[in-house]
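Researcher: We're teaching a course module on how sequence relates to structure. For the next exercise, students receive a sequence and then see the predicted structure as tokens, so they can try to spot secondary structure elements on their own. Here is the exercise chain.
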Amino acid sequence: MQSLKHSFPLQYFNKLATSTLLVITLFLLSACGDPIKEQALQQLPITEQRVTQLGDALNSDQVRNANLIKQYADKVLDLKPNLAPLINEFKKDATTQGPMYQALLDRVNTAKNQPQMFASSQALYDELLNIYQAADPVLFSDALSDPLNVLSDMSDGQLPRVNSLSKAQSQQANNAQDFGTGEQLIGNPSYGHWQTGSNGMSFWAWYGMYSMMGDLFGRRTYYNDWGRSRNYSYYNDYGRTRYSSPNQLKNQTKLEQRTKKSFASQGKRYTSPYSKNRTGSSSLSSKSKTAQTSANRFKSNTAKKSSYASKSKKSSSFRNSNTNTSRGFSRGK
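Model: And here is the predicted structure for the students to work with:
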């Protein structure tokens, strides 16, 4: 404790606590008379608790696909020990150290400590609801099907895909290109980002150890090609609204609009990568399907600038829905 005091003086902690308290106090004062801010204040501890409970569920092996990730990772490690650094990185997805869970923590902390970062109290409230849904253990398990199925593909057919058709089946159904092993994670901001090269074309750049995906299994993936011919993934077809921060969604929209403008200048048309759901899901929980309907309504209501009351009612009905998850494997042929 003594060494901690030397490294971080007491004044530092007092200043940090005072700063956080000031932000919260100002937010509380500004909420007076604003029903949406009051709703956000009520939702914040509920969302924060849900994320904590998800962490507890991961730590106690109560998230199905997280448990399968551990099993799959061990199997692939036996098959391909030379890929240990990458496999161990995927193993983190089954823990609270995984990028998807860490992203939820970051978003909660932003909502809690920096509410002024949001464009409006409505945007803050919507973000808290999205995080709440994303932290549902059943939905989070479904979201983990993407990294789980990357491990499946790395096993060269030794391990079945879960919650998903086989690669060949989904490619045929979607008339999709093959963007290599790991393509389920392309577009997911927890694993990488779209980077614009000197030629003005955007390509997928993996984070850290995930760069091995491109080095070992695939080729450089350009947004133009991927957007038109991508295959199914849970994130892009079901979870994007919940597992992206407002800023990440904003950046995705900017890239899409810039690409459309570039194509239009050449007399061509570019269709949004998210204009329609790709075929490929199998045995997803009914909660994911309900959440997808909720997300579509959310986007529609946002576009129409619908009232706060109707959004609140739909979000509440989702939270109170009583649904179950399928536990069956889907083994593609």
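Model: If you want an answer key for the exercise: The chain has a mean pLDDT of 83. Residues 33-319 form one domain.
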